[in-house]
Amino acid sequence: MRREIKRALHLTALNNLRGLCGEAVVAVNHAHAPFSGYKVGAAILTANGKVYCGANVEFTPTTAVHAEVVALVKMLYDNPKAKAVAIALSTREGKYPPCGECRQALFQANPKMLTVGCNHNGAVKIVKTLKEIYPHAHAWRRIVPRTSRFK
Prior knowledge:
Layout: H1 2-11, H2 14-28, E1 40-46, E2 51-55, E3 57-60, E4 63-65, H3 67-78, E5 84-91, H4 100-109, E6 114-118, E7 124-129, H5 130-133, H6 140-143
């Protein structure tokens, strides 16, 4: 597993991060935000080099699915054992960090994941590990008992 992560981190050299940001920028164009107008695109890079994109979707003023979660669900639907190693986020407003709920979902996927903030042109603006932006995440794997149906 460690070799897989090292290989994936090697894949995330700056040029690959720019490419990942480009995918996130394209995903912004698929966002549906008629209520807030806040459009977000996300692109997740897996350890084997596959990219999964997502965009936020608003159904009502209080019901929405975030871009990070859309990309994560697409990845897990395609391959439940996939290892996410980096996520790029792009917004037209230039706000990069994921919200707390998305940070928790991404932490559950891989606490060592890189987060990359991109502007609307795809330029890399910030690169941090998920642990850096979410140092006190809930470790649900340790909280929920193994005998629970929530394995």
